[in-house]
Amino acid sequence: MSEKGEREIVRGLRDVAAAETSISYVDPKGSLYYLGYNIDDLVGNIIYAEVAYLLIHKKLPNQRELDTFNAELISEMKLPEAVIESIRATPKRCHPMDVLRTEVSRLGEYDLDANDRSKEADLKRATRIIAQVPTIVATLHRSRMDEPTPSPREDFSFAKNFLYMFKGTPPSNEETDVLHRLLILHADHGFNASTFAARVTASTNSDMYSAVTSAIGTLRGPLHGGASEKVMDMLDDIGQEEHVEEYVQGLLDNRKKVMGFGHRVYLAEDPRTKHLRGMVEKLCHRKRTMDLYRKCIKIEGIVHERKGIYPNLDFYAAVTMDALGVPKEFFTPFFTTSRVSGWVAHTMEQYEDAVLLRPSSKYVGTFGSTFVPIDKR
Ligand code: SDX
Question: Residue 329's closest CA among 214, 190, 236, 212?
Answer without folding.
Answer: 236
